[in-house]
Structure prediction request, 248 residues.
Amino acid sequence: MHTERKIALVTGANKGIGRASAEGLAALGMTVVVGSRSLERGEAVAAAIGGDAVAVALDVTDQDSVTKAAKVIEERYGRLDVLVNNAGISGSGNAAPQDAVDRVPSAVDLATVREVFEVNVFGVIAVTNAMLPLLRRAEAARIVNLTSHAASLTLYADPDGPLAGLPSAAYSPSKTALNAVTLQYANELRGEGILVNAVAPGYVDTEINGNTGVLTPAQAAEGVVALALLGSDGPTGAFHSADGPLPW
Ligand code: NAP
Prediction:
């Protein structure tokens, strides 16, 4: 099926910031593909969004699932205009940041670190590489990666800074690695006009932090949508928050 509407895939779009981003992109007239580990929960969100939103089963840590999702999008639309790599985990279930189990590096469970990197870093590479052939068929593809203020080496290197008292041995390093991955893709794809950026949404009221965040998912989604809509003169390889660029 060929369509002039832009096609956007959001991973982990069944709830939280991913869902709000899917809603925001759909409200702007895009055809949204709701990526969800549970197809059933994804379909419920796609139905709630309405219009031509659809769901696709997508576990970013399962290569077979990633490959199948790309095939579904290729068969339905033949291309992809926007990829939002939103799926992410803290490694601490739904604990608030001060209760996270990954706090102390000397005591962190290595399996937790691996699990967090599988989703937050390796999952992004798997999904991006599976979708790249489709993104390359779009006129001006955009990739948006959900990072965090906690990714900033500059912020957590400062012993007097706000993150020094909030150690995180798995989540923070995973998002720092994601920032590096974002830059690698930005550099590779710059010449093709595909813009790749990372956005830190701030402290958002979602399950990942036990709903202790202060911003709404809809507020967080504004930053995601802005990077998905960048014109050809927009930045690539940027690390953004709602308040502007963040230090690496
Ligand atoms: P959330 O409500 O917990 O949503 C996380 C989403 O990721 C869910 O849809 C979840 O699906 C999905 N997910 C987890 N593992 C997955 C996998 N293996 N494959 C596919 N999907 C998977 O949290 P959120 O706050 O919206 O988080 C969205 C992104 O924002 C994350 O990357 C997070 O690190 C980032 N972020 C959030 C905050 C904040 O304050 N909330 C701050 C900075 C950055 P299930 O429902 O199936 O588990």
